[in-house]
Design a protein that fits this description.
Helices cover about 45% and strands about 15% of the residues. It has helices at about 5-15, 40-45, 60-65, 65-70, 90-105, 120, 135-150, 165-175, 200-210, 225-235, 250-255, 260-280, 285-300, 305-310, 315-330, 345-350; strands at about 15-20, 20-25, 25-30, 55-60, 85-90, 110-115, 150-160, 180-190, 215, 235-240. Helix 2 packs antiparallel against helix 12 and helix 7 packs parallel to helix 8 (about 165-175).
């Protein structure tokens, strides 16, 4: 973990807790599909993130101890403290059994996904579908905590659609059931990731539940955004998703540190690639699944569009290493914000 700056020390002086765990600052990496796997979580922790939950993991797969699902549980016990496991599912018994399995593999916090808007998740009564059944959502929290003794956190949206923005009712039911912290993405399920996140929802939650831990999420792309969210909403923590894609150094900047120089960025991308290969275990699948990371790492740099086109054609480890060294060692930040980068795809991660 990086040495704390004076700003980090200031955050530590107003340290917040999730269950029994004191976190050193108010900045959390969002759980993102295909991103929040062990290699990226470790990097984010080392650069200053206070907490890095896993990507959403299927309760059905965990309950059956499916080998492929269990791979998502791998974590670095030296760095990932506390280790937060996010699970999703619609069946209470399956979710409880999955949480128990996760605890057996080292989970210290169980996070329940109640916000994913994807149809293949919601049609099974999971993700955002739980917003339509606050009592069942509350039962999940109560029964998982009773079975594991672990702190249970949840991530929700502001509602199913514009006509059913029931976040206050859902939050009340979850807190009454013992929810240790509640993350809110202030868009409805119907909105997906379109439009702007309504931060007034975060402020409203904190007003109604001043003694509870509220985590704000949505449209945080820069350090200034994160600080503005805390100041304008009063939330206890800020959860950062899209802004951290390709830029884990954002957490260091939030603690008063510098952005990366080209040589450091290059070394960081190569380190992530090497760790990703080890995590995946096979060269070709690792190269192909890392392409999206390369696109995100290049975002905002001169020549990123051409680099993205190039890496999408690469299939060998050596080709990726050579392309990364050639591009990132000389690529400079585009002060215009890379206007040609509007087609960078974040949807795969955000779900």
């Amino acid at each position: 973990r990086l040495e704390q700056s004076s700003q980090s020390v200031r955050f530590a002086s107003v340290m917040s807790r999730i269950g029994p765990y004191s976190l050193p600052n108010p900045f959390i990496l969002a759980p993102m599909a295909g991103v929040s796997e062990m290699p990226f979580r470790v990097i984010a922790f080392e650069l200053g993130a206070a907490l890095c939950p896993t990507e959403l993991v299927s309760a059905q797969g965990l309950m059956r101890t499916n080998a492929r699902t269990l791979k998502y549980l791998r974590f670095n016990a030296e760095v990932e403290r506390p280790y937060s496991l996010q699970i999703f599912g619609g069946d209470v018994e399956a979710m409880v059994r999955a949480a128990v399995v996760g605890q057996g593999y080292g989970a210290q916090i169980i996070d329940i996904n109640m916000g994913c808007p994807v149809k293949k998740v919601t049609r099974n009564g999971a993700g955002s579908a739980l917003l339509c059944e606050p009592e069942r959502a509350a039962t999940l929290v109560r029964d998982i905590h009773a079975a594991t003794g672990l702190p249970v956190t949840c991530k929700i949206r502001s509602g199913w659609d514009e006509h059913q923005r029931n976040y206050l009712h859902v939050a009340g039911a979850l807190f009454e059931a013992g929810c240790a912290a509640l993350a809110i993405h202030p868009r409805t399920r119907a909105q997906g990731y379109s439009g702007r996140a309504d931060w007034s929802v975060i402020a409203d939650l904190k007003r109604h539940f001043p003694g509870q831990v509220i985590i704000g999420n949505g449209d945080v792309k820069t350090p200034a955004d994160a600080h503005r969210m805390r100041e304008s909403t009063g939330c206890d923590f800020v959860m950062i998703g899209r802004g951290a894609l390709g830029n884990p150094w954002l957490f260091r900047e939030l603690l008063g540190g510098p952005p990366p120089e080209p040589e450091e960025r290059c070394a960081g991308v190569l380190r992530h690639f090497e760790d990703h290969q080890a995590f995946v275990g096979e060269a070709l699948p690792a190269v192909r699944s890392f392409r999206k990371h390369l696109a995100w790492y290049g975002h905002g740099l001169h020549g990123a569009a051409a680099f993205r086109h190039e890496v999408n054609q690469l299939d060998s480890v050596d080709e990726v290493r050579e392309a990364v060294q050639r591009f990132f060692r000389s690529a400079a930040v585009d002060p215009q914000g890379a206007p040609d980068e509007q087609d960078v795809d974040y949807r795969a991660a955000l779900g």
